[in-house]
Amino acid sequence: MKNIFYFFSILLTFSQLKAQVSVITNQFSSNLTKKDLNFSSDRKLFAVGVNDKLTENYIVVSKNKRGAENDILCIDKFTRKGDEKFIKTFTTRFIHKTNLSISFVQNRMMYKDIDKDGNMEFIYIVKEQEDGMKSPLNKVTGLIVYKNKGYKLWVNASEKFETTHFDKNFKDLPENISSEFLTFWNSLRKK
């Protein structure tokens, strides 16, 4: 019985490895500095390596200095093919008038090669407080990155976080991509 269990465990492991297209890594990213990759803001909050079928990528979330007049959160993607140098292939900024009002939600994200083209798509979640981190939640935004372009969707406290709004280019996402991410988005507790 024990041997049968081990056999099926090994079989399941190999079937999972065969199906896996991408790998999320944390090797270099945990010690990443601006000297390694010139990310957009002053201090790194989060960095992850995403090695998909075709490229090696690092996604870095950074913020401006504490105590600054406003709050800026940046999300950058750096890509390398083969032995080339890393180049910045995507960047976006979230800006708020009050410092410490924007936060990256590290435990609410999804990575997936939905269209099976060998490149990983992902969604990150960003929260925005009214006026600093101890004030009420004002807005929750989802940032979808597909083919190195950003697509945003969000909910607001003024509508009890019930109505999802979309930026104007969201309609350009292929239906299978938007559908997969909307399923994830709709499953999140946003209040």
Explain this structure.
- This protein is α+β, with helices and mostly antiparallel strands.
- The protein has one domain.
- 16% of the residues lie in helices and 42% in strands.
- It contains 2 helices and 10 strands, in the order αββββββββββα.
- It has a 5-stranded antiparallel β-sheet, with no helix packed on it. A 5-stranded antiparallel β-sheet has the order 6-7-8-9-10, with helices on one face.
- It is globular and about 45 Å long.
Number of helical elements: 2
Uncertain parts: 1-21
Q: Estimate the strand proportion.
A: 35-45%
Tally of strands: 10
Supply the number of structural domains. Answer: 1
User: Which class do the helix and strand fractions yield?
Assistant: alpha+beta
Q: How widely separated are the two ends?
A: 48 Å
**Approximate helicity band:** 10-25%
List the strand order in the largest sheet: 1-2-3-4-5
Biggest sheet details: 5 strands, antiparallel
Radius of gyration computed on alpha carbons: 19 Å
Mean pLDDT over the residues: 86
- Spell out the helices and strands N to C: HEEEEEEEEEEH
Q: What is the general shape?
A: globular
